[in-house]
Structure formats: structure tokens, C-alpha cells
Amino acid sequence: MPIKVLFLLFIVALFNSCIKEYTPEDWDDSFSIVVSGEIETELPGQVIRIHTTINNAGEQANLPEDLLVEVFEENNPVSKKLTAVSDNESFWQMPGDFSFHEGETYFLKISPAQNIIPQVKSEVTAPRPGSLIAESAFVSEGETKIEIDLTLEKSPNFKSYYHINVYLIDAEGNSDELEITDFRKLYNGAEILTQRNGILIDYDKLPEDKHLSFYANILNSLDIELLKGSFLHLNLKTVTEDYYLYHKSLSQLTESNSNPFLLPTTTFTNISNGYGLFALHSTVIDSIVIE
Known about the structure:
3 helices, mainly beta, single chain, 13% helix, 10-stranded mixed β-sheet, Immunoglobulin-like, 2 domains, 4-stranded antiparallel β-sheet
């Protein structure tokens, strides 16, 4: 056998002996921590999701077994430790006696004891709740949509951002969220999300009267005559700037993926040494009779 062939066979055998089969337990630089945490203030025992990015093979790594997840209040060195939910270890729960308070600043820290990944951090200040006035809601456009008018009241925060959803409650007490489809006119500072339902708002960029008018689709299963005279509920979520930027970037990313003429978008994150979102929000609900 020629020497060159023998040499090539030797190289192939050596290469094959060095290949290590990938298992999800192996942690390497191709993985990063991802945090999914959108938490309501003043409610104890809430849950965030912690997982990893996906590699080129479509696989995720298991989280380190010694992972420590903590929340600190500003100026308080004593942490609140989160515990993994037993039936799904990607979900971590706050202590049952702990809740986030409006106007306070908090720090999230995620770190394994053996330092196989960099410490993951995030900082957030809980917003104070805004308020709205629901002005009208009536069935329109051939009885396929509800036209809704509202006004946002003076913001309680230095800068305020909102996420608005609308929904009905059926006879069994279940919520039926309606799809917000379009505005009656263009508004600076307000956009309809594409990756989830609702309107995202930058309060300071709205017109001076802070008025919005928009349409929501009526579900096919609804009886129009029964709908008239019932209540439409408006959910006003006061969110952080990070929440606003994160969901705005996701919405733009979703839109750019369906439109080849839009430029690619980078997803916003407020997670240091990781990806995702850790955010707090405050919610108020108003209701109005549908005409």
C-alpha cells in the first residue's frame, strides 16, 4: 500500500479517536443563560424561567446542578433565594413571603458554585401603576369588530411605558382576550405587537391629549346580540423601559422575518452575560359597557 494512503488512514483514525459525542449535559462556550421573567408587583411566590440558548444542532444544555438564583433588594445585602420547581427545573419560584414593591429597585443574580459560566445579572426598578379612562366601546364594521376609545391619564413615573390588552369574560368566568388589529389613525408612540397581543406604548411620545382609538376583532363564537350590553375589560400594564424595548425588538424581528425588505433586528436584552428579560410591571383594569 502506498505510503501516502497509509498516512491518510492514520490521520482519519486519529481524528475519529478525538471526536467526542455531544450530550446536552456538556456545557461549553456555545451556550448562554436565557431569562424569561415578567413579574407582577405586590404578588408573592411568582415564577421566572431560566434555560439556555440553543446550539446549531437544536439542543439546549442542562442547567448546572449547583445553580444559585437570588434576588436582592437595593441597600439590603440579604438575598431571597429562588427554588427550582420540582416538575420542571427550568422554572424557578420566588419565596412565598416575598413580593416586589412599586418604586423599589431589585437585582437578579444567577451563578453556579463552580463558576463554569459567568455570573448572570440584571437590575430593575418596579414602576408605579398608571391609569386610563375607558370612553367608549361599540360593535362596528359589519359587526366583526369592536371600536374602542380610551385616554391615558397623567403618568406617575418619570418616564412611562404601557402594554394594553382587551378581553371579555364569558358566562363561566373565563377570559377571552381579543386581538387588537389596527388603529383608527396613526399614533406616534403606540404600536400593535406582532409576536403577542396588545398595544405597546411610549407615553411621552403620544399626542398631547393621550387619546387612543383602535379596533379589536370579535371572536367568531361570540353572539353579537349577547355581546351588546356586556362589559369589555381593558388591562393596562405599566411596564419598564426594558420591557418596552425588549418586546418592541421582538415585534420588529417577527415582522422582518415575514418581510424580506426590512432590515434585520437585534433582540434587546437587559441580562448581563446572558439573554432575555427580567422585568416588573404593575396592572390596573378598567371596564366599559359595549354598545
